[in-house]
Amino acid sequence: LAITNLSKANDRISTLFQDDMAGSRQANQIAKDRLALGREARDAMLHIQDSAAVAADERSMLAYFQEIHSTLDEMKKTFYSKEGQEATGIMRDALPAWETGYHDWYDRIKAKDLPGSMAQMDTVTKLGKTFFDASARAIEVKLKRADEKFEENTAEYHTARTLMLSAVGFSLLLGIALSI
Description:
Layout: H1 2-46, H2 51-78, H3 82-110, H4 114-179
Helix pairs in contact: 1-2, 1-4, 2-3, 3-4
């Protein structure tokens, strides 16, 4: 019984590190990419007259979106709970409109349309809210799952430890009793 409990605890730790912590890292990576996207676009607006700087920022934007797409694909493997699948599904559904908004934003920046690009910045912020909220939810889901598994694992470990110590104590007492 104690060995079975330790085996379950070991399986839970394995899942915790392989799935839940990987999923948490993925969700955090998307959060970092979101922030970097905003920084790049604002930098492009600040350097609206410098076509080379705008082009460099646009290349960075494309790379960040490529990374977000690949991270969302990876998240299919690590977000296995209903809550996790819902959060990643919302992110996947919201991504195309948000990404299109960014492309439109850069089109306005490249056209040196500062008022239009500022208006598009507001639009992108509104389009991204659903994605942002789902991303934050994905992080919460993984943290909650990790906490649950950690607590279950701790309980299994303590149960197994108590059973093993009880068996050792009983064996010692039985050995003493038989030797007398």
